[in-house]
Amino acid sequence: MEKDSTERKGIRNQHYFFVQSFLYDYIHRHPFASLEFFNGLFLQHSMEESLKGIWDFTYSAIQESDPNVERIEIEKLPYTVSVIDEFRTIVVITLPDPLSMTESYYVGIYYQLIDKRTDPEIRYFTLEYHNIRKSALCELSECKHTLWGFTKNLSVDEFIEDIKSIVID
Questions:
Q1: If DSSP states are collapsed to H, E and C, what string results for the chain?
Q2: Which of 37, 48, 138, 142 is most buried, with most CB under 10 Å away?
Q3: Whole-prediction pTM value?
């Protein structure tokens, strides 16, 4: 039986697939709603609860095909909202500490509104563990995974500044 690529690399499936698949899909299916959630415009559920729900769902979905998958328990996934101006916002989600290459420290979501009536354009960034001293700044899109370069392990504020340097002309 051939092993899944994440098993060969020692990546924790829940961590990897939350970032690379489940959260990415959620944000792209609900761009305007997710931006409003992060900005606190919906108070029925907190975004931290919603993120934890996606985190837990990721585990459940993987467990259906791999009953031995490691579960990573979390209380919440904190996030930071950085409003650049009325049309541009960056949201950074802090993840559990990565242990293997391609697990991420953060996900950064860049929202660009064209106007107040249409869905925002989205760019999705990750700061991925490379080794103890170095991280990889990457961008995921529908068709590719772009490596913007290697950097030291960054704080949330430094990650936001690196995203700004890519997206702002």
A1: CCCCHHHHHCCCHHHHHHHHHHHHHHHHHCHHHHHHHHCCCCCCCCHHHHHHHHHHHHHHHHHHHCCCCCCCCCCCCCEEEEEEECCEEEEEEECCCCCCCCCEEEEEEEEECCCCCCCCEEEEEEEEEEECCEEEEEEECCCCEEEEEEECCCCHHHHHHHHHHHHCC
A2: 37
A3: 0.86
